[in-house]
Amino acid sequence: AFLDLYTALCMQQLNVLIGACILLSFIMVEKKREWAAALFIALGTLTKIYGIVGLVFFPFAAKKGRYLAWLFLWFGIIGFLPILLGGGSYVFEQYSSWIDCLGGKNTENFFSLSQNVSLLGIVRKVSGSTEYSDLLLLLPGIVLFALPFIRFRQYRSTTFRMNILASTLLFTVLFSTGSESSTYIIALLGVGIWFAHPARGKVNWLDIALLVGTLLLSSLSPTDLFPAAIRKNVIQPFAMKALFPSFIWIKICIDLLRTNFVSTETNTQRTQTNDSN
Fold first, then answer.
1. DSSP label at 118?
2. Hey, which end of the chain has fewer CB within 10 Å, N or C?
């Protein structure tokens, strides 16, 4: 993720902060610091809407009542602060204008070279069609993303939770028409976490192939290290930057639905114990 981190920082993009807020909201749930997890969700959401995905880690919270209480408190405090500077009417007007712009911007992003760099964008730009709604892809995507959360017995597996984190970071970018090249600091953070926490305890040839494809098409393609002709005529017009992260996200979702993470972790720990003995 380093190259995308560096690019986003040089462009003074807030996506670095949003990625950090999502990651920290997960970490603080893991550390049972509900007040801090809620703080990062509120800070991320009120900076850029992507931050709201941190709420999906709520099922992993140890003290859910305290978590919700802190969430309402932080949203109230951070949401109120701009009123002290600009007044209530001004802040209300800005939020109203922002909500109105979101709907119009979605249509404008359909075939933009710099926007809609997502799974939605690949299908839209390759098909060249404006006749269908993104909901045809978004709704199945949400279902596939949400289904692993019904596997309650797997919650105690660290690898399961880490793969949920990776899936969340990727989903945030792949299913947004507002995704752009600098947004991929969020997605590639998810790719790194996925690769470091393989579902079955070790990586295989497919994992390595997907990682190499991601490094080439997603990380290097916007740079001068990549052939300009391919970048301008294939990568950008058809949102190919999202191709391998999309494959990885689908694989993560399948693994989250099929793998017994608890059993895999137990077997790995036994093997390590035997090796040490």
1. S
2. C
pLDDT in tens, 148-206: 999 999 999 999 999 999 999 999 999 998 889 889 999 999 999 999 999 988 999 99
Percent of the chain with pLDDT over 90: 63
- 100-107 long-range contacts (CB < 8 A, ≥24 apart) are 102/49, 105/177, 105/178, 106/134, 106/177, 106/178
For every residue of 18-73, DSSP letters joined together read HHHHHHHHHHHHHTT-HHHHHHHHHHHHHH-GGGGGGGGGGGG-S-HHHHHHHHHH
In a domain, residue 174? The reply is: yes
Nearest C-alpha neighbor of 3 from the set 170, 223, 174, 197: 223
For 146, the token pair is: 């949400």
Distance between CA atoms of residues 115 and 117, nearest Å: 5
| 277 inside domain | no
Q: Is residue 147 part of a domain?
A: yes
Q: What is the model's pTM? A: 0.91
Q: Give, rounded to a whole angstrom, the gap between the first and last alpha carbons of the chain.
A: 37
* DSSP for residue 227: -
Containing structural domain, residue 48: 2-272
- Is there a contact between 183 and 116 (Cβ–Cβ < 8 Å)? no
The yes-or-no verdict on residue 10 having pLDDT over 90 is no
Q: Cα–Cα distances in Å, from 168 out to 34, 173, 175, 261? A: 19, 9, 11, 18
Q: How many domains does the chain have?
A: 1
- Is 114 inside any structural domain? yes
